[in-house]
């Protein structure tokens, strides 16, 4: 018996001036997790939007359970059992979980009124099936990101989904929440629901995937069983070349202190934080979600108010009361949420690149547009930003290229210290290496860099030292030759001292 749920054969799609897909194939079995891999711009999103009925294909055939499907629409895709969970959820925050699950499809009584009892009862069962035990009347705005994701899954189950597409489902989750997500996915598999899983985290693919299909530059590269390929093989298929050194490390002599933080506290989160970052040094900040890492970055940058303590730059105590003060003292921040906090999405590449240092371009009280264009073009070239031109709206760029624009902004601002919060979140493996190479170049030129990351291999690969935070405090510090994932996680969980004692006893 054929177990194939979906076959997409020779799918092609063009947009003005761009061939997004060229004869792409995808086959998905019932009850499997099929990972769709490729760099940003490889065509993954276009292929999935065709499957969800958002785009019409130019060429090719689509078969659902062996039957050819003509023009797909979102409604027809839903009727056929296809449901997509986007990275940015489509839930309405001020409606309840139950209202979101049955939005537009509420069960009705004979008189046409909404049957709220049935709505809540069925929602409760669906939420439990998705692994979430909450009151279905709870407003979505009060739920954590991981819980909202389970509401999306419950919504898909309510539509009798036979295929669920998950786009970067773990992007904002803790490891514990990711483990819970994987358990839910295993339940879906046991019910013969197919899952298309899109993620840049290849370790996740090895943990949860059954097969992979790889796209590159809009073309089909190949399909393989996960058990038959290792992560380097996946990377080779995605980028078309070997990435010899995933984490390039600069050989830089660490210089004098650039930033010194002394006994810094905030009213809500941070407690007595002290550390120093030196010229030519990459200092990493590790910790679990909620440890206070982002709050530390915001406090140093002047975005959050400091209740006590000092921030010193090049030996001078600063009064950093706002980001304006930080920028004036040559401190830059690449925020965790680049789209909402790092970029003006509807502005072009040129405007975003020069935004933090416009005074450098002002002449006789007017903005020198020629010099602005020259500066933006210079950074576009130096940072290898892939864009039709500096006048392209930045929202049209891939995640990796958007991140390069943010970095370019702070290079143009001539920063001495750059804080980078989650430098490669939502970025494909090829773009990650480019970001690491850029960071390496910056420290070689004498910049001090503070990096916050939830990816342990990333921190251990590129940093000179790592500080570990737990509940608003620094609980540990490790030099590069002492990096150890288990020790870092112990400090992050507040158990570091016990781990150190245990290691000492073993050595003794």
Protein architecture, described:
- The protein is built from 18 helices and 22 strands.
- With 508 residues, it is of the alpha/beta class.
- Strand 21 and strand 22 form a beta hairpin.
- The model has no long low-confidence stretch (mean pLDDT 87).
Secondary-structure map with pairings?
Blueprint (H helix, E strand, L loop, with lengths): L3 E12 L2 E12 L3 E5 L6 H8 L7 E6 L2 E3 L4 H6 L2 E4 L11 H5 L14 H14 L15 H14 L4 E5 L7 H16 L3 E5 L3 H7 L2 E6 L2 E7 L5 H9 L17 E9 L7 E6 L3 E6 L5 H8 L7 E6 L2 E3 L4 H6 L2 E4 L3 H5 L6 H6 L7 E2 L2 E2 L1 H14 L16 H14 L4 E5 L7 H16 L3 E5 L3 H7 L2 E6 L2 E7 L5 H8 L3 H12 L1
Parallel strand pairs: 3-8, 3-9, 6-7, 7-8, 13-20, 13-21, 16-19, 19-20
Antiparallel strand pairs: 1-2, 1-4, 4-5, 9-10, 11-12, 11-14, 14-15, 17-18, 21-22
């Amino acid at each position: 018996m054929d177990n194939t749920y979906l076959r997409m054969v020779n799918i092609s799609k063009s947009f003005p001036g761009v061939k997004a897909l060229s004869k792409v194939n995808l086959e998905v079995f019932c009850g499997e997790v099929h990972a769709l891999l490729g760099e940003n711009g490889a065509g993954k999103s276009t292929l999935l939007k065709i499957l969800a009925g958002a785009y019409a294909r130019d060429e090719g055939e689509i078969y659902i359970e062996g039957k050819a499907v003509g023009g797909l629409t979102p409604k027809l895709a839903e009727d056929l059992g296809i449901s997509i969970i986007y990275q940015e959820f489509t839930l309405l925050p001020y409606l309840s979980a139950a209202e979101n699950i049955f939005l537009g499809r509420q069960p009705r009584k004979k008189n046409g009124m909404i049957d709220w009892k049935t709505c809540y009862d069925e929602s409760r069962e669906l939420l439990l099936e998705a692994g979430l035990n909450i009151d279905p009347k709870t407003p979505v705005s009060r739920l954590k990101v991981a819980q909202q994701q389970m509401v999306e899954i419950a919504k898909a189950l309510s539509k009798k989904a036979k295929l669920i597409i998950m786009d970067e489902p773990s992007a904002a989750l803790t490891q514990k929440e990711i483990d819970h997500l994987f358990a839910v996915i295993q339940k879906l598999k046991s019910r013969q629901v197919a899952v298309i899983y899109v993620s840049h985290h290849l370790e996740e693919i090895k943990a949860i995937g059954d097969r992979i299909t790889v796209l590159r530059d809009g073309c089909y590269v190949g399909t393989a069983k996960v058990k038959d390929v290792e992560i380097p093989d996946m990377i080779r298929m995605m980028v078309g070349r070997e990435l010899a050194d995933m984490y390039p490390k600069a050989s830089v002599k660490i210089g004098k202190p650039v930033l010194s933080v002394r006994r810094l506290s905030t009213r809500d989160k941070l407690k007595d934080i002290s550390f120093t970052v030196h010229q030519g040094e990459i200092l990493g900040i590790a910790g679990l979600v909620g440890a206070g890492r982002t709050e530390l970055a915001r406090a140093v940058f002047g975005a959050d108010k400091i209740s006590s303590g000092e921030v010193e730059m090049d030996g001078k105590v600063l009064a950093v009361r706002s980001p304006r003060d930080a920028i004036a003292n040559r401190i830059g921040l690449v925020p965790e949420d680049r789209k909402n906090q790092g970029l003006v999405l509807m502005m072009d590449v040129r405007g975003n690149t020069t935004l933090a240092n416009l005074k450098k371009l002002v002449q006789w009280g007017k903005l020198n547009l020629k010099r602005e264009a020259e500066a933006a073009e210079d950074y576009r070239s130096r940072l290898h930003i892939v864009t039709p031109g500096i006048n392209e709206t930045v929202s049209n760029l891939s995640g990796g290229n958007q991140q390069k624009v943010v970095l370019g902004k702070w290079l143009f601002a001539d920063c001495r210290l750059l804080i980078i919060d989650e430098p490669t979140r939502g970025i494909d493996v090829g773009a990650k290496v480019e970001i690491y190479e850029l960071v390496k170049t910056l420290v070689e030129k004498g910049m001090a860099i503070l990096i916050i990351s939830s990816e342990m291999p990333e921190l251990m690969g590129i940093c000179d030292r790592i500080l570990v935070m737990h509940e608003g405090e620094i609980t540990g510090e490790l030099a590069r030759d002492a990096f150890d994932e288990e020790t870092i996680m112990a400090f992050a969980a507040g158990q570091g001292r016990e781990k150190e004692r245990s290691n000492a006893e073993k050595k003794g």
